[in-house]
Amino acid sequence: MPALPAQPSPLDADLAALPGLLDAARDHAAAFLAGLDERAVVPGRAAPEPLPLPRHGSGARAALAAFTERWAPGMSAAAGPRYLGFVTGGVTPAALVGDWLTGAYDQNPNSALDPAGQDLERETAGWLREMFGLSAAHEGAFVSGATMSNTVGLAVAREWLGERLGVCPSDDGAHALGPVRVLSGSPHSSVGKALSMLGLGRRSLVAVPTLPGREAVDPAALEAALRETSGPCVVVANAGTVNTVDFDDLRAVAALRERYDFWLHVDGAFGAFAALSPEHAHLVAGLDLADSVCVDLHKWLNVPYDSAVQFTRRRDLQARVFQNAAAYLGPLGDIPDLVHLTPENSHRMRALAAWFALHAYGSEGHREIVERCVARARDLGRAVEAAPRLRLLAPVRLNVVCLTLAEDPTAQRLAALADKAAPEVFLTPTTLDGTPALRAAFSNWRTTAEDTRRAAAALEAAAAAV
């Protein structure tokens, strides 16, 4: 009896059927995106029971069917117009195309031995530098998010401290620096995390008083703190705080370097996008004076997770920190390969989604997104002010609305309010000046005036029910 022909493996079968599989994935994604408007923003669905690891695979089409049945129903509408928690952008059509092609081309843009990916990243970083009003003295590199952008900036600052003190912390360790002071008014939590990873320690972070009723640092208090600091230090300034999108006076902070020796790092994770709007560009005046800058792109640029950029004036120090010596890599050289500039020895070509977005919509298209989001935040702010059971905790300075209950604003009641509103709108908790609160961050290009009306109605109804 003749032997039956061998069945192709699932992998070989998928390769032969690849165009159809990509069509199926496209159809699934298109259906998901088309349903964002009416999908529960956070479904609140229990996770399915875990399955054992498959021994014999069933192929990509069966995997897609299993995902659709088991996991897709619990996925939030994070890409949708009423997901106002954290600071989360959606994904513009061009950015989605770029991200899909990132997976297909599967580049590791880190080496001049295979240069196209890193050349594209450099061009994209140059476009972003121009968009944020930074000079050619700043050079940029892509990282995974604001936390890593702040970490890289502070790592370069650590090396600068060593330069000023005549030691080399990248070789000898952070202990060679002795005690370090990092001064900031309202630092993001990622700053403390970065200091922990860098060996400087969370206790090196010194809270500087802010202006009355503000999250912006008091320049006079900052000068007093600098006066009390012996030797060089680091100042972390904010271009857009988390709770109220408050901005430090960057020019006033930078001017203090005439009398005090410090590295100026600016955390502009989403506030840097104020530079795109003529009405708000004054908020980031002086950004170019920074020694390093953090900007998160999966926020207001509306590219997929994970994507951010960091800029610095001292690429030489950056390369000293992150240089990677291996026989298969080229020498450091005058223009370091990207492998020598960030913690990652390899990374996906995350710049491609940003390149597509910038090429497709330009600075004017992204200005429109910024101004649309600001308008929607103002709409919700007015609705909160008009709602008897809600209270606005801070002025709507840009794209965040910080609100609480008008009466008995306990953390438990705020959590219950957010939970009841979650099918229609998602907000995240915070505390402002000791008051438990919720914050709505508008950074999604899809959000309309009608979405804001629906969000306000859901919050009012939830406030009446808690």
Describe the protein's architecture and organization.
- The modification N6-(pyridoxal phosphate)lysine is found at residue 299.
- Keywords: Decarboxylase, Lyase, Pyridoxal phosphate.
- This is Glutamate or tyrosine decarboxylase.
- It contains 15 helices and 11 strands.
- It is globular, with a radius of gyration of 24 Å.
- The strands form 2 sheets. The chain has a 7-stranded mixed β-sheet with strand order 1-7-6-5-4-2-3, with helices on both faces. A 4-stranded antiparallel β-sheet has the order 8-9-11-10.
- The model has no long low-confidence stretch (mean pLDDT 96).
- Helix 6 (146-165) packs across helix 12 (315-322) and helix 13 (351-386) crosses helix 15.
- The protein is of the alpha/beta class.
- The protein has 2 domains: 108-347, 3-Layer(aba) Sandwich (Aspartate Aminotransferase, domain 2); 362-465, Aspartate Aminotransferase, domain 1.
Produce a short descriptive summary.
It contains 15 helices and 11 strands. It has 466 residues and is of the alpha/beta class.
- Rg over CA atoms, rounded to whole Å, is 24 Å
Instruction: Provide the CATH topology of the largest domain.
Output: Aspartate Aminotransferase, domain 2
**What is the rounded distance between the termini?**
75 Å
Q: How does the helix and strand content classify structurally?
A: alpha/beta
DSSP strand tally: 11
CATH superfamily of the largest domain: Type I PLP-dependent aspartate aminotransferase-like (Major domain)
DSSP strand content: 5-15%
Shape: globular
